Amino acid sequence: MSKVMRGSPKEETLPSDGPTVSIDKAIVENQQTGSPGCQSGIRLKMYASADSQTESPAKRRLPAELTGTARRIKHMFTGGHLGSDCGSQTEARMKWCPILTNSPERLGKVYKIIAERGTRREKKSNEDGSAYAHHVAGQPINKPKNRCESSLGPRSMDGDVLPFDINRVHLANPIQGNDYINASWITEPAFEIPADLLPPSHHPQPQHAQTWIASQGPLDETGYEFFRLFFHPDPARRPKVIIQLTACMEGSRVKCANYIPSKEEEAKLFRPHRTVPLDSSSSHPKTKWALPEPDEMRNLGFIRVTLEGVESGPVQPPATNSFYHKNKLLVELLPYQDEYQQKIQPIAQARVVHYECISWYDHGTPEFVEPILELISSAKADSMISSPEESTPRTSPILVHCSAGVGRTGTLIAIASCTAQLALLNSCHLSERTLKANIISHLILPRLVPENGRIAQLPEWLNDDLVARTVDFLREQRVLMVQTAGQLDYIYKAVACFAASLS
């Protein structure tokens, strides 16, 4: 059931083709522990373009219905969670609207291009050296770990959503040598502002783009692996926050294992599982779930999750109910002992904030955009890492999952990425001339180089479409991120609402 925000988007003139792009390389690295036969890290090369400094012929205006949300939203983002530090000067300087409002015709055209590009990536996934290969996820021993979704549309093998080998999450503590979990590291596009557009007095602060883990909802047998991510030895790769965007059941369909205790002070125990083949002669061997060998169990232990507290999120008008519950979890790694033995001392502990949003249904969107903006701000604040050695806090990865970890998950990450970019722009003291133009068309826009079989960039008429470029960038890292045209429309509305709060 798809619900959208009140008001219809205004008609938008399509921008004309821009000038020939110039090449400017940058590198985004995402190092992670590798496994035998797999690439040990990610190195995504990107090139960029900067259009000429001419004003866009298309007029950019927010729908009138969105302007009433500005006062409610503005206070959520001026505290620095998303990079805004402009204070009282915001209104004087933010005279631009970089968000394209969409007619149904234009929205359909943009979504069609994004969907067709997803099909092209899938066709390239079996090519040697392809950046879209998902060989590890498709191995018979790992297939039971993938949640099969029959309603996903164009998809990878046998209906599963499979993470690309190049940026899949590796378990730091493999179960009998198997480090696979159905999750992907997601990097936000790092847009840059050309130096000639910045005033001489401006000294841009280095960007600390939020890192995300896009995961499928855990299965009953993969709960241990899921929570083991919160004990990663590297603090920069150790999440502190989970955002759950699905109910465990929708109708008669299981969407996610119920991995949170139902009452405060209650606990759930998770044991490691592995898959073992039932036969070795078949080209498609059947497998079953089993506990690891006793020696391996002693190395892995158990995980206990205790619900320490629950609070309801704030009600964001015009909504009348809380969009989420905020659960505080104590996650403990326990030694392998008799599970009935009392007073087992944990090996390690982690406190995790769990946002539970159970009213966002598969393939749909929430009714309003204000609650999702507040959720993103709150989750980013909870993900901050402070240390005496660093003058400014850093953010830890935020783990987001729905059922398959693509549609609702991609929608939230896209909104968070776009609004963070707008907040960064808002913190720059841009000239009046620059503000009068569409600033997005001036940005150095990252686009992945067509190497290792990557497909070519988006068409040039989408150069100034922040949402389309962001969604396509996310799909370069995980299939089907943002799954429906309705979800794409919801992103435009949420980002437009945020832009209105800066005006």
Automatic annotation (TrEMBL):
GO terms for molecular function: protein tyrosine phosphatase activity. Residues 1-22, 119-151 are annotated as: Disordered. It comes from Puccinia graminis f. sp. tritici (strain CRL 75-36-700-3 / race SCCL). Belongs to the protein-tyrosine phosphatase family. Non-receptor class subfamily. Residues 137-498 form the Tyrosine-protein phosphatase domain. Residues 366-489 form the Tyrosine specific protein phosphatases domain. Pfam families: Y_phosphatase. GO terms for biological process: signal transduction. InterPro entries: Prot-tyrosine_phosphatase-like, Protein-Tyr_Phosphatase, PTP_cat, Tyr_Pase_AS, Tyr_Pase_cat, Tyr_Pase_dom. This is Uncharacterized protein.
